[in-house]
Amino acid sequence: MFCFAGLVRGCHIMAQRCLKFLKYTMCVANFLCFLCGVAVLGFGVYMLVNIGMVALLPSLPSVNIANMLLISGIVITCVSFLGFLGALKENRCLLLMYFLLLFLLMLVELTAACLLLWYGEQLSGVITEDLKKSLEEAKGSTGNQTLSAWDLVQNKFNCCGVTNYTEWNDKVPKSCCQTNCSTSHPPYWEKGCLVKMTTLFEDNFLTTGISVIVLCMIEVLGMCFAMTLFCHISRSGLGYKM
């Protein structure tokens, strides 16, 4: 009888230690994610202030690097803060919100990946037409902001135009020059930006797929940890302790 009681007590102590380990692991992991989110958010604010809200797609003017970084930073910081505080304070409400947000994020990521694979060709055609409209705006007298976006992309990817430099006609920007633009016939980048970006995506397709899978696995682990703590707190009667 005493042996059985000792065994039960030992199992209880081991379970408590495992739950403490789980709790502080969640705290550390979410704190690191919070710091990463703050860094992404700060970089987005920096780009918004120094570069502005430049976009290459006229039909989606809000889709630009600065906005994407801002949204990503806000989501990461909010979700990780919920996970950190919920685990630290052992609060069921925060843990449940953390679980639901992770679940929704995973659904959104998987849905976006499936749509990208299924409608890849149609999406490529739409983006091509939109980029051509954007280039026409950049060639106009009121296309200063759009031209800044094209300069940024062309300098980054060493490309010119959508398919090649001839699309700029006689208004080829300096960002298309390979070396010196002061000569009468400067050497331009031969490949277009759409070709360069498509090639970059295809070269990193496997890496992108693995990254999405790893991210989903991390989110699943986070949900499992949160639900384990949630169930333990429910059994111990500490459900709304702050």
Short key terms for the protein model shown above:
242 residues, mainly alpha, 0% strand
Task: Write the topology of this structure.
Elements: H1 2-50, H2 65-89, H3 92-118, H4 120-139, H5 144-157, H6 193-203, H7 205-236
Molecular structure report:
- This protein has helices spanning 2-50, 65-89, 92-118, 120-139, 144-157, 193-203, 205-236.
- It has 242 residues and is mostly helical.
- The protein has one domain (2-236).
- The longest helix is centred in the first third of the chain and has 49 residues, at 2-50.
- Residues 4-8 and 238-242 have low confidence and may be disordered.
Tally the structural domains: 1
Sketch the major β-sheet.
none
**Share of helix, binned:** over 70%
Which residue ranges are poorly predicted, with pLDDT under 50 across at least 5 consecutive positions?
4-8, 238-242
Total beta strands: 0
Number of helices: 7
Tell me the span between the first and last alpha carbons. Answer: 39 Å
Structure class: mainly alpha
User: What is the helix/strand order?
Assistant: HHHHHHH
Shape: elongated
Say what oligomer this is.
single chain
Please sum up the structure shown:
The protein has 242 residues and is mainly alpha-helical. The protein contains seven helices and no strands. It has one domain.
